[in-house]
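SAMPLE LOG
Freezer: B-3
Tube label: C17
Construct: single chain, 133 aa
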Amino acid sequence: MSSNYELMYILRADLTEEQVQQEVGKYQSLLNDYNAENISSKTLGKRRLAYPIKKYTDGVYVQVNYSGDGKQVAPLERSMRLSDEVIRYLTTKLKDVNNPVVEETEPAVVVEAPTVVVEAPTPVEESPEESTL
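STRUCTURE (predicted):
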């Protein structure tokens, strides 16, 4: 069964435009090699990172959407993990909006908890003769 995936990765900001396109092409061809379908990628441009990653404060964001059976995720992420150009990556499996899974649930049964009454202990009065200080 084919599922939809979104891959977001950040490339180093010091790469040239040609190197960025080369990296994007490399990962698209890797997806093609693993039989991914409907591959679309967008280069979102250079942006400031929320916090420094590997001493980088800026990065080039790239978003890739594709359909596949899930066997593409591990080799793609392994390739990114070993690459010096990729700072960070995240693959997300998207919900299928065309074929939502509707779960049938049974009506909830409400059970009342039994009421427990706890009485406070009565204080014991001490006679003056028994009390010692």
